[in-house]
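URGENT: need a sanity check before tomorrow's submission.

F., can you look over the Iron-sulfur cluster repair di-iron protein record below? I want to be sure the sequence and structure line up before it goes out.
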Amino acid sequence: MTKNGPAKGKNKDQQPETTKENILDVTAIEPKLKHPTIFAKFDELKPGASLTIHNDHDPKPLYYQLLGERGDIFTWEYLKQGPQLWEIKITKRSEGEADETLGEIAAKDLRKAEVFKKYGLDFCCGGKKTVREACEEKGLDVTKIEQELQNSDKSSFTARPLPYNDWNLDFLADYIVNTHHSYVKKTIPDIRTYSEKVARVHGSRHPELLEINKLAQEVCDEMSEHMVKEEVVLFPYVKHIVSSKNQAHQKFDSLDTVKEPIDIAVTEHELVGGNMDKIRDISHNYQLPEDACASYSYLFKTLDEFENDLHIHVHLENNILFPKAIALEKN
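Structure tokens as predicted:
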């Protein structure tokens, strides 16, 4: 700084001011002062306010340092990603604002579930974890996952998903029965037949098929009983709640609260989901051996498709239908 005012041009010993839009040019700060300056600016933010930093490289280490020293009180959004300039918007959470769970994110936009599936993050049965918690469990780079989530709805080639989260609960329950229950009922006989057949024919050379058959038969048994309970007890009760929303509440004779059958259904989802996870693991992501016959190939293809349908099926119930039904009953 000169006698008459600030010197022109960059000075590495200076700490540049943020602009009125709250943008901080990190490249103009002496290296040893970069993180302390950013932390100071972040600490000055009011809840809900943002700081955008400009840098000449990906400041990923800053993310982890900020998370470690300040905790889960911010969101991190890439606005621009190189090659010469990186722009990151850091927003301090409002008081009481919690990080969204995998299930909540998928409920708002099912396209983001494709990112979760890509990295093996369970958004249906394990949908109550946050992205950070799920990534930490699997040793994944959370900044990379969040970056892909931010970009998942920007591709012009990605079809917009059905607005499940906007549907009335009685309509959603009917959709689950007509779409997913119908698919499961149609597919179960093939899974039963071909898993037993392939295990019998190829089990001596590929003993993992014996375990796959056992798990697949359990899945078929569990889903068959599970869907009956939903269609006969749970879904009719959900429709009862919807129909009585603007009327005097009447109780089902057999139920005190919708949460009772929901808790059972969630437990059954976890059992089936766990078995399907084991099948995928044992089969090495449905990798076919060189001596696989047509039945072997059809079984693995069918199990893969069944699991993909199950993810959406369970997601619609665990993350949308069930929590909304519980909330509606309380109101």
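My own read: Residues 134 and 140 are 8 Å apart (CA to CA). Residues 1-19 have pLDDT under 50 and may be disordered. If you see anything odd, call me.
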